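Following up on my earlier thread - several people asked me to post the actual chain instead of describing it. Fair enough. Here it is, all 268 residues.
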Amino acid sequence: MSLGPFKRRSSWPSSFVTGLIGWNGFLIILGAALGQVNRAGELFILGTAAAILEILVLRSLFFVLRLDRSMLAGAFWGGLIGGAIVIAEMQITQIFAAHQVIWIANGVYIGIAVGLFLCYFYRDDRRIEGEAKERGRSVDYGRDAHWLEPFVFGVIAYLIGFVPTTFNLAVNVAVVGAMSGVVAAGVSHFFVFSIPRKSVVMPVILSVIAGAVQGALTGLLFRSFAAGLLGSPLVHGAVAGSLTYLMTSLRATQLAGKEFAGSLQEGE
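Reply from S.P.:
Thanks for posting it. Predicted structure:
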């Protein structure tokens, strides 16, 4: 699941996806935390507009703003643009009216995160490409080429775990699932890549347990949907989280195996 330009995390298409995930994810999750789950559609539109605008500015002025040289620059300009965008959107909607300071702070946070990721992806891709050139080999981004997979795994797992019956619930579930998938990938990476290769079952079990805990906590975001769910939001969340971590840990195990095999061949 690493198609075309999305294999390269610093490509324009990948940058837009990074922005869309960050803005829509944190806007909708904060909306759910503040009891605005029924306005996920409006938040999605605002988040999409914000993501497109921030990416256009940061990517168009990438070298002018020295984002290729400084992570601090990415954080500064990203945060400044993120906060400015939310303030601008406040002029056209009342959805942020009840908690203006919190929403602006959230915009700054999202902007910082997006700016940092753009900087990191650019520098890391250049490192990988530089090492490939030095060795006289074709560029292989390895497991980094699969960076979008955790988002997809999270969406699928949460849709299965919650079985949403309304569009609004489906949007909230999909967004929370996508963000949970990223955390799952990080945790699964720690368990899978830090434990000896001969032990495969235990890392997966630990990942699933971690997923159940994280999933149950995310279930709290869906308390207002309890009447439309088959069971407790905590139970739905635990099931969705466990499935998310199961999928990501199994995929991480597969990629770790390929990486291990590749390192053995290089040793030969």
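DSSP finds eight helices and no strands in the chain. That should answer part of your original question.
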